[in-house]
Design brief:
It is a single chain. Helices cover 39% and strands 15% of the residues. The chain has 474 residues and is an alpha/beta fold. The chain has one domain (2-469): Amidase signature (AS) domain (Amidase signature (AS) enzymes). A hairpin with a 5-residue loop joins β14 and β15. The radius of gyration is 21 Å and the shape is globular. 55% of the residues are buried.
Length: 474
């Protein structure tokens, strides 16, 4: 019964809690038992708060019995990536330098989850300050992929993806600065959404106006993503992008009703990339066939996309230098060498270099906006290959079908970075498995602040396949 409960999505669990068929205490007991059993194998949590979570579950159960449920996620357990501030609960940012940090306040996203009755039970792993697409750090070691101990979870929200993929908890809060939600979601067969700027307020970002990072849902199903988006969205004074952006009916949008008749899809298997694994290409072609069967018109992208990795790198690394430069000068021997090395790259870039990168950011935004004048969606793979070996180094070349493809960031996830820069919504969901049984991801990008349409297309595709019936053998 414990594992059966842990395999139910939040959308089902909330209905069963409301109908008093499942109790919040029973559910939390199951979640914590599974976390305790699998944590030594997966290493996807930095902190578990069993006592607080059980007490909150008991309170939640009493409220249900009195008919006083607080909202749409009442009694639902959730984990939060350890970059997200949680009041009274250790938040380390994956760093030895913050190993004992305990915030006094919740980030807006966590506060909103709690306000509708969701219960925090743990903090998931992240590389130090979320600086790479691999989840390891001196503080906790490596997080393994849910489907294979030999492969990486991806990152930087690797712990969040693995916790959901392994059935420890139904949903989690993640973050995405260059693909950090979509990369591990794809590598573990989960649903990862990076919404448009301002849809979910980012109350912790240092540069709110130039922001390219997002606080995001991590779930197994499109409907659960819609539920989290609905709960966490809405304006907040801390985030200027969010002001005036009211929540929409994401839940209705995520129902797999109707078809894609009359919708036009622009697609690209490469998006400027050079090598794509044959299993990824085959999965992508199959997914395009499903979308065509749903009624969509498909047109291949022929326009050359500018190389956005150098642009993202200038914006990102100069931001890191401003944030972490002094910290590195003081404590570099206690920090991740890969973070230290990336910050050092920014030493020779000037303010003019940064501003030129921002000009290029604008150019790319306008290019994508032009695409969406004629098309409803852009569809791509999420990653050029499935999960990398668990000992992959950030600066070593990656292998694709036995061929050395080049540096990791440019060649593994060129599909995700552009939409952090432009702000357009992009969702990944499972589109199959490779010959080793590792998940493959499909990315659907939509018009700026049209998350509802993206959720609808994703839900229809999800319903056309049977990938959700598969679970990793743990």
């Amino acid at each position: 019964m414990t594992d059966d409960l842990c395999r139910l999505p939040a959308s089902t669990l909330r209905e069963q809690i409301a109908a008093r068929k499942v109790s919040p205490v029973e559910l939390m007991t199951a979640v914590l038992a599974r976390a305790e059993r699998l944590q030594p194998e997966l290493n996807c949590f930095i902190t578990l708060i069993a006592d607080q979570a059980m007490e909150a579950a008991r309170v939640s159960e009493r409220e249900v019995m009195r008919g006083e449920a607080r909202g749409p996620l009442h009694g639902i357990p959730f984990a939060a990536k350890d970059l997200v501030n949680t009041a009274g609960v250790r938040t380390t940012f994956g760093s030895l330098l913050h190993a004992d940090n305990v915030p006094k306040e919740d980030a807006v996203c966590a506060a909103r989850m709690k306000a509708v009755g969701a219960i925090l039970f743990g903090k998931t792993t992240t590389p130090e300050f979320g600086h790479k697409a691999l989840t390891d750090a001196p503080l906790f070691g490596r997080t393994r992929n849910a489907w294979s101990a030999k492969h990486t979870s991806g990152g930087s929200s690797g712990g969040a993806a693995v916790a959901v993929a392994s059935g420890i908890g139904p949903v989690g809060i993640a973050t995405d600065g260059g693909g950090s939600t979509r990369i591990p979601a794809a590598a573990n067969g989960m649903v990862g959404l990076k919404q448009s700027n301002g849809v979910i307020p980012h109350s912790q970002v240092a540069d709110a106006f130039g922001n390219y990072t997002y606080v995001t849902p991590m779930t197994r199903t499109v409907m659960d993503t819609a539920l989290m988006l609905w709960v966490m969205s809405g304006p907040h004074p801390s985030d200027p992008w969010s002001i005036g952006v009211e929540p929409k009916d994401y839940v209705s949008a995520a129902r797999a009703e109707g078809d894609l008749e009359g919708r036009r899809i622009l697609f690209s298997a490469t998006l400027g990339n050079t090598l794509v694994a044959k299993d990824v290409r085959a999965s992508f072609e199959r997914a395009l066939g499903r979308l065509r069967d749903l009624g969509a018109e498909l047109v291949e992208l022929t326009e050359t996309l500018p190389d956005m990795e150098p642009v993202w790198k200038v914006i990102n690394h100069t931001t890191w230098r401003a944030r972490f430069g002094e910290m590195i000068r003081r404590d570099d021997n206690r920090m991740s060498p890969s973070l230290v090395r990336q910050v050092a790259m920014a030493a020779d870039w000037s303010g003019a270099d940064y501003q030129r990168a921002m000009f290029q950011r604008t150019d790319l935004f306008r290019m994508v906006q032009h695409w969406f004048e004629s098309f409803d969606y852009l569809v791509t793979p999420t990653l050029s290959r499935t999960a990398l070996p668990i000992d992959q180094d950030l600066f070593d070349p990656i292998d694709i079908d036995g061929v050395e493809a080049g540096e990791l960031r440019r060649n593994w996830f060129p599909y995700t970075m552009p939409f952090n820069i432009t702000g357009h919504p992009a969702i990944t969901l499972c589109s199959g498995y490779d010959s080793e049984g590792l998940p493959i991801g499909l990315q659907i990008v939509g018009r700026f602040r049209d998350e509802a349409s993206v959720l609808r297309a994703a839900a229809l595709y999800e319903a056309s396949e049977d990938w959700l019936s598969r679970w990793p053998e743990l």
